[in-house]
Amino acid sequence: MPATTIHFVRHGEVYNPGHVIYERLPGYHLSHRGERMVRATARFIAENPALNTLEAVYSSPLDRTRETAGIIVEALDRVRRARGQKPLTVRYDDRLLEAGNEFRGRRIGRGKGALWHPENLKLVSDLFRPSWGESYREIADRVGDFVRDQVAGHPDSQILVVTHESPIWTYRHLLETGRPEHNMLLRKTALASITSITIDDRDGQVLGITYADPALRV
User: Which of 101, 128, 163, 215 could form a disulfide with 40 if both were Cys (CB 3.0 to 4.6 A apart)?
Assistant: First the structure.
């Protein structure tokens, strides 16, 4: 049965001493711990025969995802060189961007960045349908469009995708429940974790979803 598996990797921890909601802002890079987290995940991928035979690698174009993808590809290329294979090239796709958020640039949970600040109550009255930025439906649609392109362009293969918590969980929730809306406080997408989704190339049906957290103890 021909099937394509998309391995969604969330980026590692970000250096953010000011506790700013950085969203799509430039200049937010992996912390030292974030780099260690990604290296743990990179080793997990490179040493796993079910993961290290990738056809392509894609990433969100933001700093933290670029850095995460670079560390993983570096580990994978060591394996590929030993096999006599060509190195991988990271491709960037805006459909993998973090969700748009009107709170960007504010401090998390403080002042006007607090979800429960009087000015923000109208935005967070329903956590399942947040109105502070891009809707869950829009997020799921763009990720789904990306996935369909990969299934059509790389049938019966393994694809690695480095992106963010919201796109990963929103798309997974849509596949599992039929709706993208969810409570963001209940997501299961740890930093540097891997969510693997296998899709039947013939009819687009989901054959399986698995989850791994190689950086859990970093």
Answer: 215
Q: Give the pLDDT band of residue 109 (cuts 50, 70, 90).
A: low
Give a yes or no: residue 110 inside a domain: no
Question: In angstroms, what CA-CA distances link 180 with 139, 157, 172?
Answer: 8, 26, 8
Provide the domain limits for residue 81: 3-18+30-100+134-212
Question: How many domains is the chain partitioned into structurally?
Answer: 1
* CATH number where 178 lies: 3.40.50.1240
CA 160 to CA 124: how far, in whole Å? Answer: 33
pTM for this entry: 0.91
Q: What is the pLDDT of residues 60-69, one digit of tens each?
A: 999 999 999 9
Strand ranges of the sheet holding 56-59, from the earlier edge strand across to the other edge: 90-92, 56-59, 158-163, 3-10, 194-200, 206-212
Residue of 81 and 129 predicted with greater confidence? 81
Position 155 in a domain: yes
CA proximity to 23, closest of 123, 109, 97? 97
